[in-house]
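I am writing to request your help with a piece of structural work I have in hand. Here, with my thanks, is the record as I have it:
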Amino acid sequence: MLEYAEKLTLTPAMMTEDDVKALRDVGWDDRDILDIVMVIAYYNMRVRVVDGLGLELPDSWAAGAVRAREHAAELAAARGVSLPADIWGVWEQAEAAKARA
C-alpha cells in the first residue's frame, strides 16, 4: 500500500489497473482501495495548498513527525523490517526544526 501511495503521489499519470490489482492481490477490497486513494488525494491536496501559499508549519509539528517516524521504525524493527530510506530529506529537515523548537 505504501508503494501505491508513493506512486500515486509522485507519478499519478502512471497509475494503471495493475496497481489496483496488486492491492487486491494482498487482500484489500474495493472499499479499502477507495479509502486509500481518498486519503492519499486529500493529503496531497493539503500539501499543495500549504506549499502553494508559501505557508510554514509550526516546528512543533515537525517534532511530532519525528517522534512518529521513530515509533514507526521501532515497530518495523520489532517485525524484522526497516522503514524505507528518506530519499527526499524530509526527516533531516524535521530533525532540524525539532532542534529549533
Q: What stands out?
A: The radius of gyration is 16 Å.
